[in-house]
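so the lab meeting is tmrw and i was supposed to have these ready like two days ago... anyway. pasting both below. for each one the top line is the aa sequence and the line under it is the structure tokens. i havent really looked at them closely yet so no promises
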Amino acid sequence: MIRKIAGPRTIANVFLRYVCLLAGGALLWMLVLFGIFMVLEAAGEVLPANYAELWLNEAEEELKVAPEITGEMIPPGCSFGVFGGDGSWLYGTISAGERKTAWEHYEERMVYTNGHGYYRFVERDAGEVCIVNYEITMLYRNPFFRKWIPRADVLLVILYVVLFLLHTAVVSRSFGKYMQNRIGVLNEVTGEIRKQNLEFEKGHSDIREVEEVLDSLYQMKEALKDSLYRQWDLEKSREEQIAALAHDIKTPLTVIRGNAELLAEGDLAAEEKEYSRDILQGVEIMEGYLGMLHEILLADRREKRLIPCEELAEKMEEQARLLASARKCTVFFSREELRGEIQGIEIEMIRAFQNIVSNGLDYSPPGKGIRIHFCNREEAEKVYLAAAVMDEGPGFSEEDLKYAAERFYRGDKSRSSKVHYGIGLHTARQFAERQGGCLVIENGERGGGRVTLYIRQLSLQ
């Protein structure tokens, strides 16, 4: 991380500095190019813009009296034509398409052309007229350069634009690297917080605004750290209290069970035997509650692993068969082709599924069974393994649909059970939401209840 230095800058100051570098560079390149062309012009390699005019001024008398005008008498880069007194073409380098235009300009004494420079008219002693087409532009002395390289003034502009763009790219890259290095400390801090590593040292930046954000993040980190410690202490205390409570309850339950079993072995009246059975059944229900509490305490202590959907469905089917066999119920399975893998705690997924199956078996009428269907589902660009359990009971009431997954909800009389603790569907929903899925409770199309466990997958591959 960047260490704090004296005199932190503001982003405005840093930006102004790079703007000055950009403007200074633009001015510097302009001066450099101008200097280079001044040197070339002084050396005679680049001709001044009015070079053709100066040439013609000096050569005008020679053009008037010369027996014949040749190309050497004309300035470089210019074209000429010699016409008779009646406008007939005699010779020269002006193209055939421009000869008529040139003569018309001579007759009208119009020196400006239509975008092709200027005309210079020289009336020769022999009664002929020499018309020279020239431009006010910087030319090269070297003929090769005149032919293949843009005009000196155009080249100056092109070079300046290219150098300015390169200079802008360099300054922009430098500014980006500077800001990235200074702001990078924010990524480091937020990365540590994202990884829940709250033991890192406070970072610093030499930019005032970044330093202020770092101070805020550090304060947030300290507050989050304190909050997590308090939450951890609270969870630890809660677990210890639940474990102590479960242990305290287990001892008298053992005594009650033992005494009830001893009484049942004696010679009791029919009414007394019924009382003894009720006591044992109550003890069994209480032991079931203790088992649920034990499962809650162990839920977050197991390691996650990758499990193929096909393998998980097979294990779920096996558990469903065992539950249905113990209840002397029938279970019908259907399964689509299952693909992909799930990352999670296997025993937790199976336990959540068992709670749903057990709920369906509790509410299926005697002699009836349940149906279980497995498939892959894609919803909102997410992939799930869907395990649906359908019973043939009375279905869910409006109140059940709203509260069936709430902790300790027992339902109305139509869906009540002496061995139903009101925690199974709640535990299943907690697992599904913690794993990124959900629990859907609804009534089937042909009656009965339908509970679907959606378990989030990594992908369908």
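ok protien two:
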Amino acid sequence: MRLPDYNGGSIVNLMASLQEAMGGSKHAYRQLDLLTSEQIGEYRQVVLWVVDGLGMNYLQAHPEASHLNAHLKGSMTSVFPPTTATAVTTFLTGDAPQQHGLTGWHIYFRELGALLAVLPGRARYGGVGLRQAGIDTWALLGHRAFSDWIDVESVTLSPKLIAQSDFNLAHLGKSRLLSHSNLTDLTDQIVDTLHNKGKRYLYAYWPDLDNIGHQYGIWSEAARQHLLEIDQAFNDLLQRCRGTDSLLIICADHGQIDTKPSDRLCLDDHPELLRLLSVPLCGEPRAAYCYLRPGCENAFDDYVKSEFAGQAAVYTATELIENSWFGLGEPHPQLIQRIGDRLLLMQENYTIKDWLAQERRYELVGVHGGLSGDELLVPLIFAEM
């Protein structure tokens, strides 16, 4: 099993390189070995384009995405868990999960007494978002935006669907917000921005490869066709922005694996285990945080070892912190509260899920959040323009 490489090989180390290249203070983490601040600092403008779901192994398995592969410089690890809610927060803050404290899609916030889907900012059972409920997302999370760490103009380019979300606005900082409606719109706005004078950092986020993977599978023909569209958009950017003294970096928050129905474990089929839990499962279907009823630790461990042999491995919260799964250094004050008592790390292609009363049930084909190479490793692609 491979853990994130926070000592020079992770996306948080990329953010360290970017921060120090653009006039920010020295980062708490070392710079990325593959791309240092000295290299980045040679350019007037920097674009970080995050393609959600673009795993390193997946890209290399598709040599027909020739432009992306031609500029591939190597691989990085994501963070733990390798999932959007956690990794995108690293891109938006520059911090590892150890410091920003967001540990998956579903997080138990003891401060609110609520289990939240953190990106949409709603309780897991649904209802209104945090802002409508009178909660200040920025104050709740306590994050400093990456744009506030650097000393150049900052632009954030987000999908229209999420551009004005509570989560996105809480991480905007001094950055100027733009929104896009499709891939052509995204590339056009990057081109327009880079042809302006001045030094700047542009962060662009593209979600559709991940969305297609969830619905049809990352190894589906639909995902492959979309990868080729991204590849062409990348090449178009290189041509249209030539001479702007810019560095275009493409990477991802995580990769994906595909599952089939027999891989999807459901706690409906394990009522004995369900009775040991004090809170519904948190985190991810590939990495589930389990909050146990007092005195049930041994019973839980024994059940997992006997009933989920070869399907799930169990770790204590203390093991995760001591072995630096989430990062290095002083942890977020709420981190230990947000990872429960046990982690169920799913093996092979297995997932695990429970359901709330009246919760809409769904199945995802492509998934992420585990520690397979397909999920953890992401590409580092860059080219000068």
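from a quick look at the 2nd one: The chain has 16 helices and 19 strands. The first helix runs from residue 11 to 21. will dig more after coffe
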